[in-house]
Structures are given as C-alpha cells and as structure tokens.
Fold this sequence. Notes:
It is a single chain. By secondary structure, the protein is α+β, with helices and mostly antiparallel strands. The protein has one domain. Helices cover 27% and strands 20% of the residues. It contains five helices and nine strands. It has helices at 2-18, 71-78, 81-84, 136-146, 158-161; strands spanning 54-58, 66-68, 87-93, 108-110, 115-118, 123-124, 127-128, 131-133, 149-152. The protein has a four-stranded antiparallel beta sheet with strand order 2-1-3-4. The termini are far apart.
Amino acid sequence: MRKSASILFLAACAALLAGCGDEGKRSFSPVPFDSHDRCHLCGMVISHYEGPKAEVFIKGAENEAVKFCSGRDAFTYALQPENKRRLLAFFIHDMSATGWAKPDDAALIPADKAWYVYSPSFEGVMGPEPVAFSKKADAERFAAEKGGRVYGYDAVTLELLN
Length: 162
C-alpha cells in the first residue's frame, strides 16, 4: 500500500513538472486593433494612420498584446536586446492579403513567416517601412514596382532599419 502511494506521489510530481518551462510553447493569436489603441513606441493613435500595423507578446505581459502603428516601430521594439529575449509572438499585417489604406486585422500573420520588402526610400507612417508579405512572389512584385529588396524575417535587423 505504501509503495503505491509513493508511485502516485511521484506520478503527480512528474505531471506538475512537465508543465514547467513551457511558457514559450503557449500558443498566441493576434488581437484586433481598436480605435483607441496607441502605439507602444511613439504613442500615436494607431487607427489614425495608413499602412501595416504590428503587435507582439512578451514574457511578463503575456496576456496583453503590445501594439504598434507600423512594422518599423514593432521591429525596433522587438529587436532591442532586452525585448528580443522575451519575445513570445510577433504578428504583422500581410500585404499579400489586405490593402494599405486600412489593413484588415484578419490578415495579421506571424512575422517570422513573412517576406519583407525594405527600401530607405519607401516611406510608411514612421519612416522607411519593412512591408510584410506572406507570399514571396508578392514581395518580389512589390519590390520591382516600388523599389527595395526582399528580405526574410531574420534579415530584418536594427542595422537595416537605421
């Protein structure tokens, strides 16, 4: 009887420990922007401006999206060393699936799955904008029409944006 109680205790401990350290495996979904949201970086009312928007989730604030008026501001925030190590999820408007003037929040995609067109001469609301596309062909077409180069997610760096 005592042996079975020990086994049950060990099994319960193992089950509890199995959940430890899984905070990075939590699934996140994008949160729609509303008319009162302000950019975390610059404080502007997000809905007042055209162009793709973005949001991130970070450790320590997992239950609330940190929202940005542009992909540029979101990358600038997410790539800071103190934020990069806490980054849990990053979503950005997909220009393969929505328009520039008023991006549809149904078109928010994981930023690490997107292709980006970046050119210092292509201006978004906060300066040169890394424009996200879920389809590489769309990114290539946009770059050919507007100028710029196509980059993968890992190639968008603070050095590139400065």
